[in-house]
Specification:
- Residues 8-62 form the HTH cro/C1-type domain.
- InterPro entries: Cro/C1-type_HTH, Lambda_DNA-bd_dom_sf.
- This is Helix-turn-helix transcriptional regulator.
- It comes from Paenibacillus lignilyticus.
- Keywords: DNA-binding.
- The chain is mainly α and 74 residues long.
- It has one domain: 434 Repressor (Amino-terminal Domain) (Orthogonal Bundle), CATH 1.10.260.
- It has five helices and two strands, in the order E-H-H-H-H-H-E.
- The chain has a two-stranded antiparallel sheet.
- It is globular.
- The protein starts with a strand and ends in an 8-residue tail after the last strand.
């Protein structure tokens, strides 16, 4: 299966939120946001739903699986 990717950094920039701002809104630490953005941490479904609510976006438009390169071309 592919790796979990996300658009959190992009959406934060769009909404002019710092990592700290987003962390405060969802009840997490700034370090957690940094780890999520780098792809070094797969957030719980609770955090995913909270992030989705902050940005008013569908979960699937923020978090998605990226293949290993073998089946990405369609």
């Amino acid at each position: 299966m592919g790796e979990l990717r996300n658009r959190v950094r992009e959406l934060r920039a769009r909404d002019r939120l710092s990592q700290g701002d987003l962390a405060q809104l969802i009840g997490a630490s700034r370090q957690t946001i940094a780890l999520i953005e780098r792809g070094d941490y797969a957030p719980s479904i609770v955090l995913v739903l909270k992030i989705s609510a902050v940005f008013h976006e569908q979960v699937e438009s923020i978090f998605f699986l990226e293949g290993d390169g073998e089946n990405n071309e369609q």
